Task: structure prediction
Amino acid sequence: MNRSVLSRFIISTLLAGSTLAGLAATSDSSGLPPAATRHWTADNGNGTYSNPLFYEEFEDPDIIRVGEDYYLAGTTMHMNPAVQIMHSKDLVNWELAGYCMDRLDLGPAFRLEGGNIYGQGIWAPCIRYHKGMFYIFSNVNGVGLQVFRSKSIHGPWERNQLPGRQDLSVLFDDDGRIYIISGGGSPYPIEELAPDLRGFNTNAPKRALVGRMGEGHHLYKINGKYVDVSAIPGGPVDQMVATADSIEGPWKVERMVQGESLGVTGAAPLRAQPDDRGLWLHQGAIVDTPSGEWWSVIMSDHGSAGRMVALVPITWDNGFPFIGLPGNLRKAPDTWIKPNTGYRQEPKPAFIHDDHFDGPKLNPHAQWNHVPDDPKWSLTEKPGVLRLHSLPASDFFSARNSLCQRPPGPESVMTVELDTSGLAVGDNAGLALLSSPYAWIGVVKTAEGTSLQMSTGGGGRRRDPGSSAPAPTNAPTIRPTAPPTHLWFRVHCNFDTDEAIFSWSANGKEFTPLGKPFTMTFQLTTFQGVRPALFNYNTSGQPGGYADFDNYTVEEPRARGIERLIPMGKTIVLTSGADGSLLAADTQNNLLVNVVADAAASASQNTRFQVIDLGKGRVALKTANGRFVSAAEERILLKDLAGKASGDAESFQWVNLMRGDTLLMSLTNHRYLATKPNEPGPVTVTATGPRPARKGGAEFKWKAVEP
Result:
């Protein structure tokens, strides 16, 4: 029977049932610590985790294990402090361990003096541990390779400098040699470092990895074999892996990741088209656990929010480490079982951005846009506030002492309280989004008085050292009446639309939008996503007055939204995101099928499935007549278990994507339930992953109904 005939037969035989009900208030996040319900936390609290690992930018990750501890280093570009280091015991819950440098002060442009280093600075760190010492190697564009060392991950860090190397990785080999691979095109030179890491061994033989690899190298020696992992440059690109029995080669090259987007769109998610290829996983490192598992922390672009990292399992096959699970290699799950590290920890957010400026130090997640001018900011001149004294600048992009943080996704609301009574003529103070173009809302003081403005401006070209000429700006939106000296500013960032709305308040409760919504972008001028920033600069050419900031808060309205719901114990209907068809039980042929969502199908008992909790975010689907959805190779059958427990064939990992889309992964082959869009008929278990636009046939919406 062909699919169309079968579909008509199924629809005609479906039994009528009760009408659809509203969405049930069902959550798998009950019992989590309060902080984990208010801020993005990868740990789901049920033995699983969900990507991204951090729902905010973390670039160019490199990871190591030292005993039972894991350390992750990431790019900070022009920001200060420099080179971020995270620590974890379970690979899912992380905390800040520190930075390598408090001040990346390597010349005037690093201080925004006569130029800038936006989109340059320090990036692509390599973290290693050898004989009781931590090492981090990271290049600074136009300056050289920085070598940091410390006996403690918390520092202090000693630093020396070597000639620059692009996207490098270092291997301490068993025989005492220290190899460094670098470069973005074949052949990739493999050099030797001197034992003290203060020079290169110029007498070493000439070596190179020949083959189509990429940039962002990660070099290892695993079970006697040399392994290099690198990424093809770009957005929708893959990661490669090369192996060799000897550092001399020859090297065999394989594709380690292939077209895996984890459902991340190339365009703003709510504007993605069905043919959107998405933004693929690329540039990441691998690490093992004491139990013998292998994992990767790997990066992908995420639009205007910047580049983020995912935690994905590694499967070794024919001597190569591939991302993915058996039966579905080179692909990766959005939700999966937490690594077996031998350590149990309750869910804990890695980043909480609020800062009330009540202590002696800033929130450690805050970073200055360049090297700060320390005498011009203070937490002690007026205890309980951040005081920013203005410095001369032609525009916000060239303003010093702008204090930035990363905005959490998929949606975040940043609010700050501001006292402008200390402003001088020429001062501009407020809340901004640092990017190119940038945007801000603030108070501007002139000889005529003060005004409330929302302004946007340019930011130069990619990695342009800059000049003293002002960046192009658009006409600001100005509120016609003078603002109060005590007020609140807010920016609401929605990364599903790439839209930010600036607003202000006189009482901290009722907020009024100012200016047009600002379109956020990821661009190569700063080479980062947008950064909320507190600023005060003076356009008169001289230092001005001061602004007092207080109560900087960051709300994450979707940290535990529909993205984390699993309707355990509920009866649901499942609708395909591709064509709106419904999953249904074909009781005549004991098959799972999809049918056109007409009135008969919508009212049928055969479109209702009870969700049975199997633990660890896994479910079984039970039909109205008591049979279970069961995978049989690539087919999906309806099976009578005769009172027996569900096995792997009846077990599906419930995988939540963002924006309420769900996938069901079979434990038999680690692939997903799939329909053929606009072609009702039997459901298979063949999909390798989600489509970015949610139109591939494997992505479903669910709704709770009466049984």
